[in-house]
């Protein structure tokens, strides 16, 4: 159970390898019989049901190992992305996100997501390049003088959104949004702490970088306001 990519990849290979046979040989039989069944999608659905059984058995064994559980979530998200984008799987069909939405799995996912996000924030703010813009030498790209830590933080929020956006339940998505709000507030507190250290040099490099970071984050959040 510590290598979910083995069975997830195998299922994707089975779906891909059987697509032509199902389309060319089985689908015409169904069509001739007047059936509305899509052979390839039903084949995919049956294999995904096996995945769901496997996940339901494996997840309880992984709940208290952050690294293995996080790895499982990563692999499941990659599997789902390929299942929908490459193989045309339908959002109305059962999916792995239903398993990850179950209470014990979901709360663990939320906790692990928060843990690794906070570690990332520690890392980005302790970096030597934290207050330097990645684009400082490209004038037309660097109008807002955005320090690296602010840009990395907003990318972190965007990645989290991308990970939970396909959850089937709006209430689960809102819980993830709650986590993002917590992270924004945590980042605000961290910026305030750094700013207090810089009050004697309010025109100094780092103080100005903090103001630029706040302006950038506020601007991006305003841009995201239309994203339901």
UniProtKB/TrEMBL annotation:
InterPro entries: RINT1_Tip20. It comes from the Eukaryota. Pfam families: RINT1_TIP1. One of its GO terms (cellular component) is Dsl1/NZR complex. GO terms for biological process: endoplasmic reticulum to Golgi vesicle-mediated transport; regulation of ER to Golgi vesicle-mediated transport; retrograde vesicle-mediated transport, Golgi to endoplasmic reticulum. PANTHER family: RAD50-INTERACTING PROTEIN 1 (PTHR13520:SF0), RAD50-INTERACTING PROTEIN 1 RINT-1 (PTHR13520). This is RINT1 protein. It comes from Podilymbus podiceps (Pied-billed grebe).
């Amino acid at each position: 159970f510590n290598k979910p990519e083995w069975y997830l990849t195998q299922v994707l290979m089975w779906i891909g390898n059987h697509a032509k046979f199902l389309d060319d040989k089985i689908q015409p039989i169904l069509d001739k019989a007047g059936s509305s069944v899509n052979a390839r999608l039903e084949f995919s659905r049956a294999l995904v049901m096996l995945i769901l059984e496997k996940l339901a058995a494996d997840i309880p064994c992984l709940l208290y190992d952050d690294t293995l559980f996080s790895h499982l979530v990563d692999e499941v998200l990659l599997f789902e992305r390929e299942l929908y984008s490459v193989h045309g799987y339908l959002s109305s069909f059962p999916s792995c996100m239903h398993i990850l939405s179950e209470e014990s799995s979901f709360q663990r996912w939320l906790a692990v997501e928060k843990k690794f996000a906070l570690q990332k924030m520690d890392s980005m703010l302790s970096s030597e390049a934290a207050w330097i813009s990645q684009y400082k030498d490209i004038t037309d790209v660097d109008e807002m003088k955005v320090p690296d830590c602010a840009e990395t933080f907003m990318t972190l929020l965007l990645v989290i959104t991308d990970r939970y956006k396909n959850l089937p339940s709006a209430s689960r998505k809102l819980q993830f949004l709650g986590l993002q709000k917590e992270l924004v507030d945590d980042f605000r507190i961290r910026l305030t702490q750094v700013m207090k250290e810089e009050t004697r040099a309010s025109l100094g490099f780092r103080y100005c970088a903090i103001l630029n970071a706040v302006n950038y984050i506020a601007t991006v959040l305003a841009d995201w306001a239309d994203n339901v």
